[in-house]
Design goal:
The chain has strands at 15-17, 26-32, 46-48, 54-58, 79-84, 88-94, 108-110, 113-118, 128-133, 140-144, 151-159, 165-171, 183-187, 193-198, 205-212, 218-224, 239-244, 249-255, 266-270, 276-279, 283-286, 292-296, 305-307, 312-313, 319-325, 333-337, 346-350, 365-366, 372-376, 386-391. By secondary structure, it is mainly β.
């Protein structure tokens, strides 16, 4: 696939910010969200289409009035957007509540259609799954969650066989509203949801992320669950799990109890050999047999802490990720890890100005030549945010 270097996109670069002394890379802001018409809070990150266009969602803003039951009408319900050299920035969809609200998940591109989810909105205000063409046409609501089949869908959908998808919800489940542990589901081409697994306190609940291995096994992490520890996490510190979607066989690969590792793991990437990479404040690898290894230790002031997503794997084997806070500031950081220097994380960039943005949540996008593209949630206002580029 031909690579378009976004660092030279005329009219889209809002600023050029040199790195701190000792850093060889270059950081550029490609676009700054203003809220409202442009959207704001691009929490789910971006994907790259075959036409070298970036696509993403925002949690706020948009041109459609947002009804109060779905969120704050002053801030908007969010958008689906595109950014390219040829077309500039475009809002493809403005959510207004009934068609979705609070777009914080990443998108999935299949053919000419984008598939995504919103955390809220829909008939029951428990979130929706939608599709829309890359030119903004043919927006379709594929499913509206009601709580019993899940609530608050997060994360990009994973393509399955015969036009189906796999995904998860952070809360909800068959016993909703009495219990709300979250579910893993499959979505048929007609929009029917089948629950593959209902989480519980014993095996982890309220999932964080979901990826698929080359062998077709789903792997993810949870915020809570597992053995409780009164000194660290009374509800359990979370687990890493696997699920065979063909048999619904669920396996706990690692539990956190406060004695080793922080917990609440975010799974990000899977290598061709099946090695799984994640972040539980420290960067780690794990396999389907449960063999866990810390690859790099975090430091709140140096590299940052509090991940909200897992790391992305570059073609050269380097892992890149973001911390939503830390980096000697409260604004977050971009870090990397390489087999050249095992056990140590490199601090590539510290966020912390209205120009660069604050609080990166999303997993970065790695382009074929190793350039890193990501988003921050905020700028100087609550409804801002940026799309940025880092050239190592």
């Amino acid at each position: 696939m031909r690579f378009l270097h976004f660092g030279i996109l005329a009219g889209l670069i809002a600023a050029f910010i040199p790195l701190s002394p000792g850093h060889a890379g270059q950081f550029r802001v490609l676009f700054t969200f203003k809220g409202y018409n442009t959207g704001g809070v691009p929490q789910g990150g971006v994907i790259l289409g075959p036409d070298n266009t970036l696509y993403g969602e925002t949690a706020a803003g948009g041109t459609a009035p947002c009804k109060a039951k779905y969120g704050d009408p002053r801030n908007g319900c969010g958008t689906v957007y595109s950014l390219s050299k040829a077309g500039g920035f475009k809002v493809l969809v403005s959510f207004h509540g009934a068609n979705g609200a609070y777009g914080i998940s990443g998108l999935t591109l299949v053919g000419n259609a984008l598939y995504g989810a919103t955390e809220y909105g829909g008939e029951y205000n428990k979130g929706v799954i939608f599709s829309v063409n890359t030119d903004g046409s043919n927006f379709t609501l594929l499913h509206q969650f009601d709580g019993t089949d899940g609530s608050d869908p997060h994360g990009p959908l994973i393509p399955g066989p015969n036009g189906s998808f796999y995904g998860f919800t952070v809360s909800g489940g068959p016993n909703f509203p009495n219990q709300s542990p979250g579910v893993i589901f499959s979505l048929s081409p007609t929009g029917a949801v089948t629950i593959l697994h209902v989480f519980s306190a014993a095996d982890g609940y309220n999932p964080t992320t979901l990826v698929m291995t080359p062998s077709g096994i789903l792997v993810g992490g949870t915020y809570f669950g597992g053995p409780p520890n009164p000194n660290y996490c009374t509800q359990g510190c979370g687990v890493v799990f696997s699920l065979d979607p063909t048999t619904s066989q669920y396996t706990v690969l690692k539990t956190y109890d406060g004695s080793a590792g922080t917990g609440s793991p975010f799974i990000g990437s899977v290598a061709a050999d099946g090695t799984i990479y994640g972040n539980d404040e420290d960067l780690f690898s794990i396999d389907l047999a449960g063999n866990y290894q810390i690859l790099g230790y975090s430091s709140p002031c140096y590299t940052g802490d509090t991940p909200q997503s897992g790391p992305a794997l570059a073609p050269d084997g380097t892992l890149y990720g973001t911390y939503s806070s830390g980096g000697c500031s409260i604004a977050g950081s971009l870090y990397s890890d390489s087999s050249i220097n095992p056990g140590a994380l490199s601090l590539d960039y510290i966020f912390g100005s209205p120009q660069t943005g604050y609080t990166p949540y999303a997993q970065p996008l790695i382009l074929p030549n190793g350039v890193v593209i990501g988003t921050t949630n905020l700028t100087s206002g609550d409804n801002g945010g940026t799309i940025w580029e880092y050239v190592p």
